[in-house]
Design a protein that fits this description.
With 87 residues, the chain is an all-alpha fold. Helices cover 85% and strands 0% of the residues. It contains five helices and no strands. Helix 2 runs parallel beside helix 5 and helix 3 runs antiparallel to helix 5. The longest helix is centred in the middle third of the chain and has 24 residues. The two termini are 28 Å apart.
Length: 87
């Protein structure tokens, strides 16, 4: 198995974990600071709209497949951002 087979045979989550394990500390820090800032903003906006933690949990339970797909998108996006900060 060559390196391309190895890379293509991994899930977005597995690739993301490898990036985190081997990533530049500064790139990881910047990427996660931005990600958490967006997360906090989203939580605050949801609360201002009258939604709470139970609403979010119910949405996750009712939309499991969609959530999995979006998680893969986020793993890919964050991985690309971390690698982009290294260059």
């Amino acid at each position: 198995m060559d390196i391309f087979d190895e890379i293509l045979g991994k899930t977005p989550k597995e690739k993301f974990i490898e990036i985190i394990q081997n990533g530049n500390l500064g790139a990881l820090e910047r990427t996660f600071e931005n990600f958490f800032a967006e997360y906090i903003a989203m939580v605050e906006l949801l609360e201002k709209q009258g939604l709470n933690e139970n609403d979010v949990k119910n949405f996750i339970l009712e939309n499991g497949t969609f959530i999995e797909e979006r998680q893969n998108d986020i793993f890919i996006e964050l991985g690309a951002k971390i690698l982009g900060h290294e260059g």
